Amino acid sequence: MDAHRHARRIGLHPAIEPFRTGMLDVGEGHTLYYEECGRPDGVPAVALHGGPGGGAAAAMRRFFDPDRYRVIVFDQRGCGRSRPFAETRANDTERLVGDLERLRAALGVDRWLVFGGSWGATLGLAYARRCPEHVLGLILRGVFTCSRLELDWFYRHGANMLFPDAWERLTDRLSATERDDIVRAYHDRVMIDDIRARRADTMEWARWESALISLDPSRSQDAPDPRRSDALARIETHYFLNRGFLERDGVLLEDTRHLQDIPGVIVQGRYDMVTPPRTAWALSKAWPGARLEIVPDAGHAAGEPGVIDALVRATDAFARRLD
């Protein structure tokens, strides 16, 4: 079965090319790549990629009906087609939220649907907290709030109990002292200037996440792309070492008053090993206006069939509400 037929079988909307692309200067030496596709007069929606540092993929457009939506996709600071690449200077959550506002204003959008998974969900929640008046709704997948509990699960004690083989590969290259703080150890290693000298470490950092991302073994065994891995490792360790640059641990789950008037859908894989369902569950309890859908046969990846189905149903339903 070819890729297009497979995508249609599991519910993705048809592929469509952007009607506009551009570069937005956001200051401090950073320029962001963005693209728009679908209907220029459609419901505005911004899709936030994961990582941080993962970059936007063309598949992100396909969760939206191009006959109903004006889909805006962009690469956050330091990754994808944005410049400078793999840069962590002047790169934090407050600045990313500011970038969203600059992009919204530059494109003449008043309010938009905010769609994001994993780190994209973190950024979506942070943006909604700062700018609720510009949010039509939130569709979040694999909810992550960059808390100590979540980071410890993935990089200290939790996921390693289920994936000891992948964990051994991640940690074998580290000294006994470095293993006391995996995030700091990798941060120090991948921040060296020589891209060739840091490549083995950036690849291992990305490979750990890839090993746990999906219930489909073939997806979990894919070798990470070296260029993407470089930005991912540098920017993730930069953010995770600083707990997402949030003002206090757990704030995105504690401060949810602004969400009360925002409709939302939370899509969560039952067997998500990267961002376990506990966070999505806690968010749903703090946000009565949101509908939580736990996909019983899915992990973390956005491309798993049950997750695709839930996300496409969510965007389709939201568009119908505005018809």
From TrEMBL:
Keywords: Aminopeptidase, Cytoplasm, Hydrolase, Protease. It is an enzyme of class 3 (hydrolase). GO terms for molecular function: aminopeptidase activity. Residues 48-302 form the AB hydrolase-1 domain. It catalyses: Release of N-terminal proline from a peptide. One of its GO terms (biological process) is proteolysis. It comes from the Bacteria. It is found in: Cytoplasm. Its EC number is 3.4.11.5. InterPro entries: AB_hydrolase_1, AB_hydrolase_fold, Peptidase_S33, Pro_iminopeptidase. Its main location: cytoplasm. Pfam families: Abhydrolase_1. The active site is at S118, D272, H300. One of its GO terms (cellular component) is cytoplasm. Belongs to the peptidase S33 family. This is Proline iminopeptidase. It comes from Marinicauda salina.
